[in-house]
Amino acid sequence: MELATALKAARQRANLSQQAVADELHISRQSISKWETGKTLPDIENLIRLSTLFDLSLDDLIKGDTTMMTKISHDSKVFMIVKIVLATIILTIIFALTVAFSLTQFTPGTVHPILAYVPALLSFFVPVGSLLYMLINIRKQPSRGMKVALILALAGVLCLFVLRVLAYFFQLPYVMSIG
Predict the structure, then answer these.
(1) Which of 41, 53, 90, 169 has most Cβ atoms within 10 angstroms of its Cβ?
(2) How far apart are CA 128 and CA 72, in angstroms?
(3) Average pLDDT over every residue of 104-124
(4) Residue 110 vs residue 22, higher pLDDT
């Protein structure tokens, strides 16, 4: 059964008007109407609330509706991508600021020259190690470890670029000499 039909049937079995359901969910009556006519689909939060309101399982509501199942699958993939991008940005900033702050504590010529290669090594070994982990554990469905490895790989690569920008503005020792 399609979701639109299932929602309308469940609402009618409960002897509720569209307005009563809308009031219960704190949304507009037009949203309920659009869901029942199949013009739009409810998000997962409203689906859960509807299943509770009508005392139905989510399976009863969505299993027969391939459009809804596709939407849920797509939404979860988009959410995963957004989480990966945000985590990568945050980790890149943390990596770059940590290395930059460490380098500001040194005066050129007073420490071992190997420190000149710390940013490059960080930006090389973290992504290479993460990519190797991903290659070793490649599967059809990405695991949590694969997502973490991807985030580390992206953050490590971006770290060098952020360090170069920071070095330009703040004259960081050692970073400027890395070509």
Answers:
(1) 41
(2) 33
(3) 64
(4) 22
| The three-state (H, E, C) secondary structure of the chain, written as one string | CCHHHHHHHHHHHCCCCHHHHHHHHCCCHHHHHHHHHCCCCCCHHHHHHHHHHCCCCHHHHHCCCHHHHHHHHHHHHHHHHHHHHHHHHHHHHHHHHHHHHHHHCCCCCCCCHHHHHHHHHHHHHHHHHHHHHHHHCCCCCCCHHHHHHHHHHHHHHHHHHHHHHHHHHHCCCCCCCCC
* Predicted local distance difference test score (pLDDT) of residue 114: 64
Q: Which of 4-18, 85-99, 111-125, 146-160 has the lowest mean pLDDT?
A: 111-125
Q: Are 153 and 131 in contact (CB under 8 A)?
A: yes
pTM given for the model: 0.51
Tokens representing 72 are 């849920």
Q: Give the separation between CA 124 and CA 132, rounded to whole angstroms.
A: 12
Burial of 41 (C-beta count, 10 Å sphere; 0-12/13-18/19+)? buried
pLDDT digits (tens, 9 = 90+) for 91-110: 888 877 777 777 666 666 66
